[in-house]
Amino acid sequence: MSTNSLSFAFRQRCESIATEQRYLLKKLAFDPLPAIDLANILGAHLQSTEQIGIDVDALNELMGAQNWSAMLFGANPPMIIYRPDHSLARLESDLMHELAHILLKHPYGRYDPATGKISKNSQHEHEADYLGSCLQIPRRGMQWAAQLGLTIDQTALHFCASTQMVEWRSRMTGIRLL
Ligand SMILES: [Zn+2]
Fold first, then answer.
1. What is the block-wise mean pLDDT of the chain (178 residues), using blocks of 10 residues?
2. Which residues form the IrrE N-terminal-like domain (predicted)?
3. Distance from the CA of 128 to the center of ligand 1, in angstroms?
């Protein structure tokens, strides 16, 4: 995940958004935030590929990738299609990334007839990665985990995140866990 292009002000804004969305859901700053709850208050519809009977191979083609877990469609209301066959931690991370695009009001990726794929703006992708990670594990959550003396594994379990995500947030925030 490259964050070099992200300003300090943007990173601060992401932490504020993560706190604000928890507040709107009557959660504490270090509470876990399930992506489904956030999707609900943002008015985004989550549908699994199974629910809508869509062919995953066709979506792989459209995305130009096979390792996606969720993708956002600019419908009204916005719709996120996800694959139910990935781990919950991976899915939560990918759903947060898509919800971050909505929160940051990024324009939707457009289908490019020249390549047959959906074009993406790499700066927006980095921003959504960063905000998504803050939504899943905010700085206040890392501070809370450190104060309680939680391990990386325990913190990952609390936030329904992967251990790699916790380690990454530890590097980004400079907050070390056991
Ligand atoms: Zn994206």
1. 83 97 96 97 93 83 78 86 90 96 90 78 94 98 98 98 97 94
2. 67-169
3. 6
